[in-house]
Design brief:
The structure is a homodimer. By secondary structure, the first copy, chain A, is mainly alpha-helical. The first copy, chain A, has eight helices and no strands. The structure holds a DNA duplex.
DNA sequence: GATAGAATGTTTACGGTGCTCACATTACCA
DNA sequence: TGGTAATGTGAGCACCGTAAACATTCTATC
């Protein structure tokens, strides 16, 4: 059962992050109480402070795990997208991650990014790099920075609008269809540019 | 001075919302304490409960005001956009609203939308309708629903990425340029689509 | 105009929270 | 074996959201 009771607890920092993620998935709400996490991990309310400076630090660690899991999901959706269709597939995976783990996703993005947290910064940088690579393959002639920004923003915005109930997120297939339609509509917008391709 | 000291307080519900928005703008953080709001308004901690069921209800009222102010800003940027350039102008106004009033913006979007709050639902619906009208004028041949969704998501996503420090938001002009570049890159993406618009 | 009742604000109190400090325990190293 | 640093505990502070009982003030009716 318990992997290694060598320490007092074993590996409390990791156990706390695990407990936090479990709580987020169960209660669905973003409220992450340090005391509740400690309870869940079976330690006293003060124990976490031996490993995390404050609540925010633990939250950042949780967010970093979230970024990695999101990245895994995206890679699983398509290992190396290079067409608009594959990009849409990745976008759908992104939004469905947000819908399936709403509390975790909110923790990842709703709070101001703690620039002092290296783990977190690195994880988001990796995500940005991943998007950039997709964009470079899919639209080799475009300004990669500008387009990568736009694509990430588009997908991210879709995720938030669905998450916030501003769009109909009743079933995963509905969401998938709408996302595909939205992205395709945007990519097609200028092709119908009236008065020539200005 | 005081408009109407007819009641005990005058108009406590509005005063609370005002106090809340002031606090949000000052402290910059999303943390909105009901007690702090009550203090600011000069009433006891329990007074707000005569007008708002709970903290969440007050937050929703604040968010609704935020939606209206955002809408005003967008209209001020351009009353009735009908070209991509004008749309970019509105997008810049949207993001700059988020950057200038980060805490308010987060309150508006970071928490799950309370569907029971009519004021809030109506305000977001108005915003969606506004975006839809722009899209219909600017891209008359596109699927309005899909494209409106995409455009809102794009702009909204840009706002969040800037707000979260994922993108360089050092100066307003830098932000404005990058937003214009990002949107234009996306709108231009398919014109270079290799092998036809599959 | 007096007065009953509704509306509004206060006081007090409870449990929960983040966080700190002094203390206990355990692991590790000389 | 012992000393020291790492780790976990307990008590306690100030704050929070919220509720109940109480006080005040507005309003409507006789």
């Amino acid at each position: 059962m318990s992997p290694k009771p060598t320490y007092h607890h074993g590996d409390l920092p990791a156990a706390l992050v695990r407990a936090a993620i479990e709580l987020l998935q169960e209660s669905g709400e973003t409220e992450l109480s340090l005391r509740a996490v400690a309870r869940r991990a079976g330690v006293s309310p003060a124990a976490p402070y031996r490993h995390y400076a404050d609540r925010e630090a633990l939250v950042s660690a949780v967010a970093a795990v979230g970024y990695r899991e999101l990245a895994e999901r995206l890679v699983a959706a398509h290992p190396s997208p290079s067409t608009p269709e594959q990009l849409v597939g990745v976008a759908i995976a992104y939004v469905q991650f947000a819908l399936q783990r709403p509390a975790l996703f909110r923790i990842m993005f709703a709070e101001p990014c703690d620039r002092d947290n290296d783990e977190r910064v690195a994880a988001t940088a990796a995500l940005a790099q991943y998007v950039r690579a997709i964009v470079e393959r899919t639209f080799p002639h475009a300004d990669p920075d500008a387009l990568a920004t736009a694509v990430w923003a588009l997908v991210h915005g879709l995720a938030f609008l669905y998450l916030d109930g501003k769009l109909d997120a009743s079933t995963p297939s509905v969401v998938a269809e709408r996302i595909a339609a939205a992205i395709q509509a945007l990519l097609a917008a200028t092709t119908i540019d009236p008065g020539g391709a200005g």
